[in-house]
Each structure stands twice: as C-alpha cells, then as structure tokens.
Specification:
Immunoglobulin-like, eight-stranded mixed β-sheet
Length: about 700
C-alpha cells in the first residue's frame, strides 16, 4: 500500500496561476504598507489557493511481479556436433537450479533450431522475438547458450538487462574443411575447365602438410590425389559427358576433428556440346537422302559433313574424268585421320563397292568400341551380298540380314520394352490420337528382315512385329539400326507423318550418352528440401533406395511406378547437406543447399562476435567447459560478472491491483480556515 499527494484543480491552471499572482501581489502590498497582519493575509491566500488546487491522497494497492531471466538455447546444426549437446543439457540444468534459488525470479527458455534454407544461426532474431513477448520492465537478465557462431548480428535488439554468454566447445577443439571457391555452372565438352579448391584447418589443428583428396564424378569410383593444406588448389578438369555432371570432392576424416560435415563438397556442372559433329555417308541418291540432310541441318548445334556416292567405281559412262565436277571421296582423311573428330557416323543406304577398304571399316569398328557411335539406316542393299553387314563392321551391328525384303505397307509400332526405353518412351503421345488405339502415324512400305542378337534392344517393330529400330552397346560406344529406308515418309507428312525429328533427336542424344536418355538411371529433382527421387529402368520392378543423410544415418524408401519404366517417390529431407542414394545397382549424390551448410563454415566455438554486445551491458562470456556458474543479484549499473558467476538486475516490477483517492480536506474546511485567517488579520490590524 502506497500513498501519493495529487492535485486536481477546480479551475484551469491558467486561472489558478492568475489567482496565485493576485495573492502574491496582495501580500506584497501589505508588507510594503507595514501591516502587522500581512502574514495572516498570506496564509489566508494560501488556504484559498489550496482549496482551488483540490489536493487529495492517492493510495495504490500493489502486487509485486517476478523478475524474468531469458535463456536462449542454440540447438542449430553446429550445436549438435561433438560433446555440445551434453554441454547444452548440463548448462540448462545449472541455470534452472541457479534461477530457482533467486527470490521472486522465473526462467524463460527459448530454443533456436536451424533456419529455413541455408540462413545459418539466427540467434539475434530469436532473442528479438522472445523479448517482444515479455514486458521490458521485468527482464532481469539474458543468457545465451551457444557456440558463438551466429549469422544475424545486425538484428541485435536493444538490451534492457545484462546479457551473458555460456559458450559450448572445448579449448582444444579443431576442425578441417574443404572449400570450393571457384566452379563454373557449365562447361563445353572437350574443353578444360579449372576449379579452385582449398583445404583449411581451424582451431588447435595438428601440423600436417598434405591430405588425400578424393574426386568422384556421378558417383563413380573416386580417384585420389595429394592436396596441400592452407593453399589454393587449381584443379583442371574435362567433363566426361553432356548434361549435368555431379562432382564430389572429399577429404578423409581426421582423428579428433569436430565434424566431417564440411569434409565434402558437391558441385554440379552442366556439360554443353559446342557442336555435334556428324558424318553422313549416303550410298546413293534416294528420296530419303534430302530428308536426312534437312533434319540434321535444322539443328544449329550440328556440324554436318555429308557425302553422297554419285559415281561408284564400277560406273562406266564414257565421260572423261577431267570433265567431271565431282569431289573425290576423302576416305583416308575421314575414316583414318579424322574419324575421332566425329560424334556420330550415319550410313544411309550404304553398300560395299570397294570405296572403303576393309582396313578403314575395321577402324570404324575400333572407333565404336572406344566410345564412338554409328547409326545405319538400311535399304534393300542391307540384305544383299554388298551389305555393310558383310564387312568388318558386321560383328558390332545390332541386326543380321536374312536377305528377305518386305515391300508391304505397315505402321511402325513401339515395342513393350520400347515403352520403357527413353528413346521411344511416350513417343506415341507426341501425335494426336488415343494411345490405346495406337499412334496415328503414317505407314512405311519397306522392311528389311534382320535377326537381332540377344544383347540388343528392339524398341520399335514393323510388319508382323519384326524388328524396325534396334539399339545396342558395343564396348564404350553405341550402335543402332533402322531396318527400313522409308522414315522420310514421316517427314513428308504422308498419311499424317510421324515424329521423325523427335525420334532422331532422342536417338542421337542416346548415342551421345546424354544422362537424361540413359536406360538405367537414378537421379533426384530437388525443390527446397523436398526430393523427387526418380529411377528409370527397363526392368518391370526396382529395388528400394537407401538414402544416406549428411550425418551418415540412413532412410530406406520404396518407389512406385508412375509410367512404364519410371519409378518415383517424394521425400522431405530433414536438413540441408549432402545426400547419397543407392538402390544396389545405381547410385546418385545430391546436395540440398551447399554440401557443407553455412552452419559448418566456422565450427570452432568463439565469443568474438558477441563480445561487444555482452560487455556493453556489463555481462560476461563463460566457458561451459570451465564448470558451472552461479547467478547473483546486482544493482543496476554495477558490473554483472566475475570469476565463476554472472549477475542479474532485480527490477522490482509490480502490478497495481486497486487505486483509491481521498481529499486532503473538504472544501468547506479550506474556506473556514481562510475565513479565520482573514478575521485574525483584521483583528490584529484593528487592535493597533
């Protein structure tokens, strides 16, 4: 219960001041005239002024409020390494016990986890939000339980009380991390790019000069090279294939380092072909020759070299050679000296006429086995004695001719396995028409009968389900065979035509080993922290996918078939970082955010960033490893920390439960007092 004198004037303050001035003037006049009752006149005036000021006693019934100690606990990813979780638990128990010993004090605990994406530790944001929810007049102290690695120092709020930091970690902590400081987003195939990496040690690291750096592309077996510590590493690299190349760099775990979360880095570089170099050899002029040329020339990324054999050696028409304007077929230059400059060789209705010696054709076979690609578009000559199959190239071609040529109309169809193969998957949906009734494609009128080896794949069929488009892998290269020369009818729009351009594009990209057209593949399409895991296979079913988290824990997922040969599932990743996927046959790696998140850029606990804020409030930074701290009450403005203790400032906050106002004297009492004083002044002066 408290009492306070208050005034509630009966007239405006201006008028009250005016009355006070008149009273003062009257008293001054009485003093000047030497009236003996001047002091009685002054007291009477004061009594009148007091009556007009209306004094009262205000009494409040107050209820004391407890002081609040704010404890902000950092539980971000960097606080989950080493012994820090145990240190957090020990420190929380200690603070709870110390606050419980303080009178009229309660503890508020605020927990901070990982921010969205790669925002790092938003410690000041969490503190600002927590302070906004509490009355500032009750905050007696703020305690931060953290490793000191925060990323929003500029969001620090105004601090109404001493702030202290309880720092996790050990004095002898050390860590090693791998940094990719320069990496392009794309690179041209066949051209060398240079990546810049760096290996850094932090804290009390042991003295080492080099470590083993492992480099893996698309989850393949890694290669290991020695790498210096503390120096920039210039790494020249040539991408192995077009499309997305996932490069993973790893350094081994060192005994005693805090975490291996920053020992890996993953970058994705899109491999772009500068030009697709194609050699098209037409054995003779025919209606489809111009179609092949137009299709290939329609793509600006294709460099086409096209030769048509117009005058075979056996042709004798009596025209002198010096009068011919034909270009001699540069067989040696194309098939011996510069064969490796081409990405794809197409034989269009080619027949053996002695133009290409067997040694040159054998060189083409070696070109395929070493990674090249050959496409054969066959006509009637493929089933004849002059067939290219009856050459050193025959053993690698995916179809052996039976010498039967069917001159009957048929509509090309996609086989069952072709529905699952990326070259022909969904090809029937490109044109209009109901898929269950078959694609509305135009008919072809010639089919060369071939026998397909067991290891080859028939993705399209023709007359009576005979093979039409056959694919096969030979060594490091690929070959394909179109058992008809009537694909040009689609390009001409006969009976509605067909998707010849899309089929050729897919076929060329498959032969160029583009990852998006691989038959067996496992990859991830990320969206934030949500993974769409996709498995493509020619099999009717696929196994479970094991996902290895950044902390080496595992999750096993089951995929569901969403279309022929395509299995998918959606999975929400618990945190950003590097994930590895394996289904027993295919592997993949994916980095959600950076492989080493911002939380693991600096892992050694330090109070350097927080020191200006803490010391500005009189607080202190204490190492949890030094033992428990005690909490003391200190007066505001006094130092709030010392050896083994931290201080809080009691605020003495209260809540007013009731207020009562009682007049000091009733108005009639003031008037009576003023009247008596004026009468006294009159009597004193009259008696004189």
């Amino acid at each position: 219960m408290t009492g306070t004198l208050i005034f509630d004037p009966l007239i405006p303050l201006v008028m009250l001041y005016a009355v006070a001035g008149l009273v003062a003037a009257a008293v001054a006049l009485a003093v000047w005239r030497r009236l003996p009752g001047w002091w009685l006149r002054g007291l009477a005036g004061l009594a009148l002024l007091a009556a007009l000021a209306n004094p009262a006693i205000q009494q409040e019934d107050r209820e004391p409020l407890s002081d609040i100690v704010m404890l902000v606990v950092d539980e971000s990813a960097s606080q989950r390494i080493g012994e820090r979780p145990a240190q957090n638990a020990t420190a929380i128990t200690n603070v709870e016990a110390q606050v419980a010993r303080q009178t009229n004090t309660e503890l508020r605990i605020v927990t901070l986890g990982d921010g969205e994406g790669d925002t790092g530790t938003t410690l000041m944001t969490a503190l600002s939000e927590a302070l906004a929810e509490e009355p500032q007049g009750r905050i007696a102290g703020i305690i931060l339980l953290t490793d000191g690695r925060l990323h929003d120092l500029d969001r620090a709020p105004r601090l109404p009380a001493p702030m202290h930091t309880l720092l996790t970690g050990e004095p002898n902590d050390w860590d090693r991390r791998l940094i990719v400081s320069n990496a392009p987003a794309f690179a041209i195939l066949g051209e060398e790019v240079t990546l810049t990496l760096r290996i850094e040690d932090q804290g009390a690291a042991p003295a080492e000069d080099n470590v083993a750096l492992s480099i893996s592309i698309d989850g393949e077996a890694p290669i290991t090279v020695p790498a210096p510590i503390g120096q920039n590493i210039e790494l020249p690299l040539e991408l192995p294939h077009g499309g997305m190349n996932v490069l993973q760099f790893t350094i081994p775990d060192a005994p005693g380092e805090l975490t291996n979360r920053n020992n890996s880095a993953v970058i994705q570089i899109n491999g772009v072909r500068d030009r697709l170099r194609v050699l098209l050899v037409s054995g003779e002029p025919h209606p489809g020759e111009r179609t092949w040329r137009n299709l290939l020339k329609s793509d600006s990324a294709v460099d086409l070299v096209h030769f048509t054999i117009l005058r075979p050696p056996e042709k004798q028409d009596g025209v002198p050679v010096n009068e011919l304007s034909l270009i001699a077929f540069p067989t040696r230059e194309l098939f011996l000296e510069k064969i490796n400059d081409f990405d794809l060789i197409i034989f269009d209705r080619y027949r053996r006429r002695g133009i290409l010696p067997s040694a040159y054709i054998d060189n083409i076979r070696e070109y395929v086995e070493q990674g090249g690609a050959v496409l054969v578009s066959s006509g009637p000559e493929y089933g004849s004695a002059e067939s290219i199959y009856r050459s050193p190239l025959g053993p690698i071609l995916p179809g052996a001719p039976t010498a039967r040529v069917f001159e009957e109309p048929f509509k090309p169809q996609i086989t069952d396995i072709g529905q699952r193969h990326p070259v022909t998957e969904g090809l029937d949906e490109i044109t209009e028409g109901a898929p269950e009734e078959g694609p509305t494609w135009g008919r072809w009128f010639r089919l060369i009968d071939v026998l397909v080896p067991e290891q080859a794949t028939t993705v399209m069929s023709g007359l009576d389900d005979r093979p039409l488009l056959i694919l096969n892998r030979i060594g490091e290269g690929r070959v394909s065979l179109i058992a008809s020369d009537h694909s040009w009818l689609w390009d001409r729009g006969y009976e509605g035509g067909g998707p010849q351009l899309e089929l050729l594009r897919r076929l060329a990209h498959w032969m160029m080993k583009e990852p998006e057209l691989e038959e067996e593949a496992l990859w991830v399409e990320p969206a934030g922290q949500t993974m769409r895991i996709i498995r493509r296979t020619l099999d009717l079913e696929t196994g479970e996918v094991t996902v290895t988290h950044p902390d080496d824990t595992e999750t096993v997922l089951t995929l569901e078939e969403v279309s022929p040969g395509r299995f998918e599932t959606l999975w929400e990743a618990p945190e950003i970082g590097l994930y590895r996927l394996d289904d027993g046959e295919e592997t993949a790696v994916i980095a959600l955010g950076p492989a080493a998140p911002r939380e693991f850029e600096q892992t050694i606990a330090s109070g350097e960033l927080l020191d200006p804020l803490v010391t500005g409030t009189g607080g202190g930074i204490k190492l949890i490893s030094d033992g428990d701290v005690s909490i003391r009450a200190v007066r505001e403005g006094r130092p709030a920390n010392g050896r083994g203790w931290i201080g809080i400032t009691p605020r003495g906050a209260f809540q007013t439960a009731d207020v009562s106002i009682t007049p000091l004297l009733p108005a009639w009492a003031f008037l009576l007092l003023a009247s008596l004083l004026m009468v006294g002044a009159w009597l004193r002066e009259g008696r004189r």
